[in-house]
Write a structure and sequence with these properties.
Blueprint lengths: L8 H27 L5 H24 L7 H29 L4 H24 L3
Helix pairs in contact: 1-2, 1-4, 2-3, 3-4
Length: about 130
């Protein structure tokens, strides 16, 4: 039998980023879904973001970017800036889809999350957890 091929560090990082990103997105969506039962959707979205931020930060710090060349404090500050920038884009798209196009809140949330994910990866990889 052949030996298993070990993925490159870049591929491993990208795969973990995808897994952690999905876990954070599911956390965000679950909190958003629960919270919008008692508060408006455009208020529930930031509440979900705040909870998911911590899932994302610790997952990326310990799994996606294990070889980070920054301290935890540096990474936390940079990732907070990165995440807030990503969330600003997310919220802009969410409001455009939800209020402007009158999409269902869940559809608007999903579309906005997909659009913000690419920006977050690039800023995380090359700045927040710079190697």
């Amino acid at each position: 039998m052949g030996a298993l091929v070990k993925p490159s560090p870049a591929l491993r990082s990208a795969l973990w980023f995808l897994v952690i990103g999905c876990a954070a997105a599911l956390t965000h969506f679950a909190v958003f879904t629960f919270a919008r039962r008692v508060i408006p959707p455009d208020v529930a979205n930031p509440v979900g973001f705040i909870v998911a931020f911590w899932v994302s930060f610790f997952g990326h710090r310990h799994l996606s970017f294990t070889d980070a060349g920054t301290t935890v404090g540096q990474s936390l500050w940079r990732f907070a800036v990165t995440s807030v920038a990503g969330f600003a884009g997310n919220e802009l798209f969410f409001e455009a889809f939800y209020r402007g196009l009158h999409w269902l809140p869940s559809w608007a949330w999903f579309a906005a999350a997909v659009l913000a994910a690419g920006q977050t990866f690039v800023l995380s990889r090359f700045w927040a957890f710079r190697r």
